[in-house]
Amino acid sequence: MNKLRVCFAGTPEFAAAHLNALIAAQAEDASRFELVAVYTQPDRPAGRGKKLSPSPVKRTAMEAGLRILQPSTLRSDEAVAELNALACDVLIVVAYGLILPQSILDTPRLGCVNVHASLLPRWRGAAPIERALLAGDDSTGVTIMQMDAGLDTGAMLEKAAVVIDGRETRVSLEAKLVTVGTKSLVAVMNNLEAFQDSAQVQDDALSTYANKIDKAESLIDWTLPAAKIDLLVRASIGRAPAFALLNGERVRILESSVPNTRASAEVGTVTEVDKSGFSVCCGDGSVLQVSRVQMPGKGEVSVSQLRNGKPDAFAVNTCFDKPTTAEGS
Fold first, then answer.
1. Domain final position from 183, 210, 237
2. Which residues neighbour 94 within 8 Å (Cβ) at sequence distance 6 or greater?
3. Measuring CA to CA, which residue among 313, 303, 314 is closest to residue 276?
4. 317: domain range?
5. Cis peptide before 121, with omega less than 30 degrees from 0?
6. Pairing relation of β-strands 277-281 and 33-39?
7. Half-sphere exposure of 315 (CA within 13 A, CB side)
8. Is residue 120 a known part of a binding site?
9. Based on the number of CB atoms within 10 Å of its own CB, is 204 exposed (0-12), middle (13-18) or buried (19 or more)?
10. In the chain, how many domains are there?
11. Are residues 67 and 107 in the same domain?
12. Tell me, what CATH number does 231's domain have?
């Protein structure tokens, strides 16, 4: 039996983990597919020197000796012709970051397959991991989906669920999703046509949309209950870190918790400081304990380390600025 010719399209670490799983699986005797090319976004400036840096997917593909393509768009006749020349049976898409026009979707013999980080139809869109955390969901997962012209609306080939723990962060939840996603993707690729034959149509009535978190949304509103702010901190780790304003400067809040205590002070006021961090009064008298921060122009640091060098930092009665819409933009 001829093996499926597979092309892969992805960009960040989440996608690179799935590419790595495919690279390892194709070497097994039972594998029914082979990777022929990898698409990823063009190199981008990164770091203080703004030097061009390859994506995690490109680095993975280079290590494996795979052919790499980096078009700036797929909306051209040249892009369609290039994909067609690869004669791939299926294109796998994982957090690629470029829109696939219908001409691209129609090019592979078996279409395009997407790995989406939610249990569709819940959390269609760009930020499913963050939105699941912010909503307080107790579970989420990965869906392997046949792509169509809609936004994450295609037929579902496979779903795998994970539990969201009480202290889950975006980073820890993404790691769980990588584990189940890579396993599911390899299983689907080794028996793709059977999975396509049993695909399930999504129920649009159950759909929700996962908007990308923007900077304005990452600005902490201390009038909210501490539990809500804590969710924002845990959901925002790595991509759009939650931050507060102190004397007009942004202080990133990177680690927090909600103790079983109350406070009677103006919201946004530091009410207590101890070895583990500082506590801030939030809406309804609840308290957020902050244990890790990043000051402007500095690296991230624990509050205890920061106060060792600056004992007055976040002293009791320190009051964070009241946010405005303009400040969060």
1. 210
2. 8, 9, 10, 14, 15, 18, 19, 114, 115, 185
3. 303
4. 215-328
5. yes
6. unpaired
7. 4
8. yes
9. exposed
10. 2
11. yes
12. 3.10.25.10
pLDDT at 188 over 50: yes
Q: Which SS3 state, helix, strand or coil, does residue 28 take? A: coil
| Buried/exposed code over 222-248 (b: 16+ C-beta within 10 A; e: otherwise) | bebebebbbbbbbbbbeebbbbbbbee
Q: Kindly state the DSSP code that residue 312 receives in the 8-state scheme.
A: T
The predicted-structure confidence for 235-255, as pLDDT tens digits, reads as follows 988 778 999 999 999 999 999
35-82 residue pLDDT tens:
999 999 999 988 777 889 999 999 999 999 999 999 999 999 999 999
Contact yes or no for 36/7 (Cβ under 8 A): yes
What is the C-alpha separation between 227 and 208, in angstroms, rounded? 22
Q: State how beta strands 287-294 and 300-302 pair.
A: antiparallel
Q: 119 a known binding residue? A: yes
CATH number at residue 118: 3.40.50.170
pLDDT above 50 (res 326): no
121 marked as binding residue: yes
CA distances from 302 to 31, 105, 191, 198, 310 (A): 47, 47, 48, 50, 12
Could you please report the per-residue DSSP string of 59-96?
HHHHHHT--EE--S-S-SHHHHHHHHHTT-SEEEEES-
218 is annotated as contributing to ligand binding: no
